Amino acid sequence: MGSVAHDGAVGAMTTSVLVIGIGVGDPDHVTAQAAAAMNRADVFLVVDKGSATAEMVDLRRTILDRFVEHQYRLVTIPDAERDLSGVSYEGDVAAWHGTRVERFEAALRTEVDRGGTAAFLVWGDPSLYDSTLRVLAQVADRGAVDLDVSVVPGITAPQALAAAFAMPLHAVGEPVLVTTGRRLAEGWPNGVHDLVVMLDGRQAFTEIDPTGIHIWWGAYLGAADQILVSGPLADVADEIVRSRAEAKARKGWLFDTYLLRRVDPA
Questions:
Q1: What is the DSSP letter of 22?
Q2: 241 Cβ partners below 8 Å, 6+ apart?
Q3: Side-chain half-sphere of 133: how many Cα atoms within 13 Å?
Q4: Distance of alpha carbon 257 from alpha carbon 45, whole angstroms
Q5: pLDDT of 96-128, one tens digit each?
């Protein structure tokens, strides 16, 4: 595990924080390294996004009950309201992160003994479109809590997507770009044939010219109710839109990821 001691050394008053990637829905995604790290933690801190995503909190409890061999406490942290309607996306995200910083700091001060070990179970991997590490860095910078942060990598949605379709994410010798729906809506990047798109609540794949583009789309990747659709974008876009709407109405939440590839007509 990579470790960053923000105060330069780990002392008796330092709170150890484990940021553990748990994969994207299947408890079998939890690695042996992640299971060992969980068994070092006294308290597990879980961001609670409300009743619509209660299933994600329940999955974390299932994982803990399966892998943790000692008594533990699970503490939920109410998530901050996220308003991205302002004039600056970066400013909106900074305000959201600022509230998270305050709530993470409060939980670490009141729920974790100094010198103890807390853990965050992160959907997917902490390095890819997750704010936990950024927020913890800001908590450390404030100085109210001395933190030693260690990271355990997890299986990401792009990896699970590639596995579900038994395919690589890029052509031979070509790059693949991982981006968001917001950025895709701004236009297809120059010089890139393969795009993995995450965080696409606006369904930006419906806003681009579908000519010559294939899509491999998956929702709830790795879970028992995983949904997969693939084919020429022009042919399957409407099916994906319907599947997204039906799934979100049924479960109350939706995580999906897709690969877009420009296909040579030859």
A1: -
A2: 203, 206
A3: 19
A4: 26
A5: 788 899 999 999 999 999 899 999 999 999 999
- Domains plus CATH for the chain? 2-155 (3.40.1010.10), 158-262 (3.30.950.10)
Residue 29 CA to residue 51 CA, distance in Å, equals: 24
The DSSP code for 42 is S
List for the chain the helix, strand, coil content (%; round to 5). Answer: 35, 25, 40
- In sequence order, what are the residues at sequence separation of 6 or more whose Cβ sits closer than 8 angstroms to the Cβ of residue 41? 18, 68, 72, 117, 118, 119
How far is 18 from 118, CA to CA, in rounded Å? 6
**Among 39-53, 91-105, 247-261, the range of highest mean pLDDT:** 247-261
Tens digit of each residue's pLDDT (9 = 90 or more) over 191-206:
899 999 999 999 999 9
